[in-house]
Every structure is written in C-alpha cells, then in structure tokens.
Amino acid sequence: MQTSVKQEAGVATIALVGRFDFNTHRDFRTAYEPLITDAGCQAVTVDFSGVDYLDSSALGMLLMLRDKMGGCGKDVVLSGVQGNVRQVLEIANFSKLFRIV
What we know:
Blueprint: E1 2-8, E2 11-20, H1 25-37, E3 43-54, H2 56-71, E4 75-79, H3 83-91, E5 99-100
Parallel strand pairs: 2-3, 3-4, 4-5
Antiparallel strand pairs: 1-2
Helix pairs in contact: 1-2
C-alpha cells in the first residue's frame, strides 16, 4: 500500500492506494502519527478511493487512529469508500463509529 498525506485548511488527508492489511500497519502509523501533535491539523480524512481490499487488522488500525485523534479532539472521516471495502465497513458497523462520505 502507498500512503500520502496532504494538509489543507486544517484538514489532513491520508490517501491510501492498494491493499490495506496487516503488512501496511507501519506505513499507516507513520502517516498519521505526526498529525496527532500537529496543532494546525483539526481533522483527518482517510481517502479510500485507491483501496481495493482491507482486512480485520485494517479495521483495528482505523480504530486506533480514531482513538488517537479523538484523544486530542480531532475528527476522523472516511471518504471514497466503495465496493468490497464499503461492504466490509458496513458489516463491521463502522458507520456508527466514523462519518463515511
């Protein structure tokens, strides 16, 4: 999986491309950790438009992101969710935990 982060108007967008699974936990954590202490970042959007697969460890990583960002008052939004990825998030009831746009 490839990750890239861009910030605009207080919102950091983490764009993911490829498979979001256990093998990518370091890359994902490396992408979001600087945002935790970044005072200019008020919210985080995870862009799933390039993701074609995610597994249960990816769900755990999203929950960790939510806990870390929620601890410092930052919202997390999931965007570009489609196909099988949307189905997995719906089965896991993530729409109750995240705003999915």
